[in-house]
Amino acid sequence: MSATVITGLGLVTPFGRGLDVFWTALRAGRSALAPPRRFAAPPHEGEAVGEVPTDAVAGVPRKQAYLDAAVVEALSSAGLARLPESAVVVLTGQAPGHEAGFGADWAEFVGPPVQPHEAGNTALLTHACASAVFGLGFARDVIDAGLADVVLVAGGTALNHYEYASMRAVRAISTTPARPFDRGRSGISLGEGGGAIVLEAEDHAARRGAATDLVVAGTCCRVGTGKPTASDPALIQDCVEAALADAGLDRLDHVHAHATGTTQGDSAELTALEAVAAGLGLHDLPVSSHKGAIGHLLHTSGFPAIAAAAMALRIGEAPPTAGLTDPEPTRRLRLAPGAIPTTGRRVAAVTSFGFGSNNGTAVLTREH
């Protein structure tokens, strides 16, 4: 059975358009979080959001424009002029639709009926903030089953009042820019953007001369029975360990963590990762998060996480966690505010969790 490899990546983030723009800013420890400009959130002093620059992507609804721009970049980086007719498209997020009473902002919540990007086989997955990693796992299953040689996973999100009010209702919004893993953290900052990933069967990619160094070696996607809005350390630990087992690996060199900046969620994830590190005999496991840099993109948040882990493997450097100045004390994890060299390391895990006890982990490896 051929391995599943990542051949194309595309991103739109609050730093602007493109994977390179995102990675350069993330690696430098920059933050795009700022008081709302275009998005007129209810005024609460100190709250910050991650807005995509208006000159980065044109078009409305913005959610569709972000998704489309990410797809164009992903296909280009994969060396594909268009998707093969046999390709499968996996869209992540809310089901398209319309609802009276929400005003013009409703289109930015659900978006219009999404175009399938020239492919005849399209699936919609919605697993809250773990949707992108669930999409990655679904794509790998499709390729492993021989149902397609190429799968595109894509999603987009735009800041809107419905989701912002929902996060405020559960007291998740921070009164300062998000600070993942910081002892002074107080919640999340919301962001917007789009992401796309082209996955292929390794032999198919090799035949057409595409890069095959990034392998989706293992995944675990589970819906637990825990509290709807609280993370469970045992479920997180089980999910990470199951993904490593699926990959057939007993090593881990870097984690790009879900880490949104909430007190409970970050603590649960640290407890779980400490246990994973202990089980592997690790004492200095590098852990990063991008959410202090661009905010939490909700159901789209897994795309920058996967991209960051992929770039860390290729560059040999785990990015810093923006906003982290006073790290939580840990025994086996390295939560450095600065970049962490990872030269020679080739296994990264991406953790992604969502409301409703959605738990996802993807294990990426780089084959030299």
Task: Give a written overview of the molecule.
By secondary structure, this protein is an alpha/beta fold. The chain is 30% helix and 21% strand. The protein has helices at residues 19-27, 62-77, 106-110, 131-144, 161-169, 202-207, 233-247, 263-280, 291-294, 302-315, and strands at residues 4-13, 16-17, 88-92, 121-125, 150-157, 193-201, 214-223, 254-256, 285-288, 317-318, 333-334, 340-341, 347-354, 358-366. Helix 8 links the parallel strand 8 (254-256) and strand 9. The longest helix has 18 residues, at 263-280. The chain starts with a strand and ends with a strand.
Give the arrangement of secondary structure elements.
Elements: E1 4-13, E2 16-17, H1 19-27, H2 62-77, E3 88-92, H3 106-110, E4 121-125, H4 131-144, E5 150-157, H5 161-169, E6 193-201, H6 202-207, E7 214-223, H7 233-247, E8 254-256, H8 263-280, E9 285-288, H9 291-294, H10 302-315, E10 317-318, E11 333-334, E12 340-341, E13 347-354, E14 358-366
Parallel strand pairs: 3-4, 3-5, 8-9, 8-13, 9-11
Antiparallel strand pairs: 1-2, 1-6, 5-6, 7-14, 10-12, 13-14
Helix pairs in contact: 1-10, 7-8
Give me the count of strands: 14
Stretches where pLDDT is under 50 for at least 5 consecutive residues are 95-103, 109-114
* Helix-strand string: EEHHEHEHEHEHEHEHEHHEEEEE
| Structural class designation | alpha/beta
What percent strand? 15-25%
The main sheet orders its strands as 2-1-6-5-3-4
How many helical stretches?
10
Strand count, sense and closure of the main sheet?
A: 6 strands, mixed
Mean pLDDT: 90
Q: What is the overall silhouette?
A: globular
